[in-house]
């Protein structure tokens, strides 16, 4: 990671980090009454990891040392699917999990992944902080999960390619694109005429370098943190999907905490989610210039042909059936008429 990038992160989170240092100094030295682990797949110095550590420090301090939450980023506790299994079994107390992975339990968890649905963040937060997000959280209780009220931002996903610049919709046809392990991602890129396949993100750099894939899609910060700009020359700003991370815990583990600690954890992680959104936006707005300096070339394809392809190919109709009319109506109330 370049010194410039590290300075950018630290500058954006400076106030929070200073507060975190104060929290740590104030934390009592006695053993905690409750000890939790929090897992995530973000790299260690990703802005979201910085904010998660701050949240853990706040919990430790404001609980008077009663609850100690240790943060483990960068898949230290396993991949997303492994950590989800651990949470459900009670072996891992908390996790920040992408919505696409949660959809392996409850399909409606991926409703924010509907392609080309959100045009901007106002629409995203109206949906996810409102009735649609509440419905998703309620559905997850059926699978033994407790979910914090505020979802963490992972950004709009963009398309990168190694040897072919994508300037418009037709340039996507036939491309071998790496996507996460999630049915809606596969469905989306097939509807665009590409050839999608799944791979672990920790294996993706080598796969792109050896031309196993023509390209991949991720939020812009990932291009820096995983150094994809070294093996991907082009980035098309498609904003084809928005992704978020829910903070979850297992119901049985959560029930071990007294009500006052439950309320405190909910409050702190919800507050830090709001700060994380702001800091990630600040970081993302500056990283494009850094990537250009590294040699990456950006384009801005017209989104309309992509949206038309999803309508014409039945993508929206298919996923409306999967998510159900109620959830779909809540989505459309924050976006536009999709079907």
From TrEMBL:
Superkingdom field: Bacteria
Keyword Transferase: no
Compartments (UniProt record): Cell envelope
Pfam families per UniProt: DctP (PF03480)
InterPro entries associated with the record: DctP_fam (IPR018389), TAT_signal (IPR006311), TRAP_DctP (IPR004682), TRAP_DctP_sf (IPR038404)
Alphabetical keyword list: Signal, Transport
Signal sequence segment: 1-31
First-listed, main subcellular location of the protein, grouped into a coarse class: other
Gene3D superfamilies: Bacterial extracellular solute-binding protein, family 7
Family, per entry: Belongs to the bacterial solute-binding protein 7 family.
Entry protein name: TRAP transporter substrate-binding protein
Organism expressing this protein natively: Xanthobacter oligotrophicus
